Amino acid sequence: MKPAIKDTLKTYNLRQTDCREGILDVFMSKEHALAHADVEAQLTEQFDRVTVYRTLKTFVDKGLIHKVLDDEGGVKYALCKDNCHAGDHTHHHDHVHFKCTACGLTTCLDHVVIPNFILPEGYKRVETNLLVQGICKGCNR
């Protein structure tokens, strides 16, 4: 097991299991968001669908990964870069997600800030998701 995986699980107070180590390794090796099916495919059927789902949910709950809403109504997951912890994914308010219409990959644009906005009276913001679609730098070459 890579030392970074062990250290990350320890930082987030997560018990080390083969499934958690495997899923975290998958996320650390990719720079784009992954769907549940993508994670399963990377693990070549080592773990059942429910175990993978529960591990993803635990990672979200602990602030290790965050959900990325897809333009097709699905959910993908991306590794949180920093400053996130259980129950408080700070990136929801300060970066956008970009989906390439050519290759289909969704990435976090950590340094693109979502502009502040004021909701009408009586509304309370819980989460902000901004998905920009276009051609990524890899496909735009």
UniProtKB/TrEMBL annotation:
This is Transcriptional repressor. InterPro entries: FUR, WH-like_DNA-bd_sf, WH_DNA-bd_sf. The lineage of its organism: Bacteria, Pseudomonadati, Bacteroidota, Cytophagia, Cytophagales. Pfam families: FUR. It comes from the Bacteria. Gene3D superfamilies: Winged helix-like DNA-binding domain superfamily/Winged helix DNA-binding domain (1.10.10.10).
